[in-house]
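Why do we care about 3D structure at all? Because function follows from shape, and shape follows, mostly, from sequence. That is the central idea of this module. The next example makes it concrete: a single protein chain, its amino acid sequence, and then its structure expressed as tokens.
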Amino acid sequence: MANKLQKVDHAALKANQLTIITLSILAFVLNQPWLAAFVAAVMGIGSLLKVPGFLPFYQQVLKPTGLLKPDVLDDNPEPHRFAQIIGFVVLGAGAWLLFGGVASAGWALVWLVIGLAALNAFGGFCVGCAMYYWLVRLKIPGFSKQPPAGVLPGMKPKAS
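And the structure:
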């Protein structure tokens, strides 16, 4: 079966990652678990809506001001959605631990999300996307898309 790629704006994904990183670091520096919970909630809502959680910030602030220019590539949106769900679960668990008084474990999970978002934003490698493609290889139901031709699973596709 052919893998039909869609147009995916990687600038919107990057804006999402940079916002997650910034707000999560701010939550840690200010010791504000509610801010980590807020970021997790936005990621969860984005997952339900099948869009990057902080898409409105990209569309209404970053894109119009030219701070980030569209970077539309042929790609699969499903692995990016899956990555956001994983981030939501991990960050949500971190916030839950923080509110439960287990600060070291909670902040460790927050920093895990920060690190993975930074790897994606600055290194072009999406661990959640790679996990999605590994689940495809294991023939797990619901996971069916193959990476774009010539692209290592999890890596950002090149512009054609």
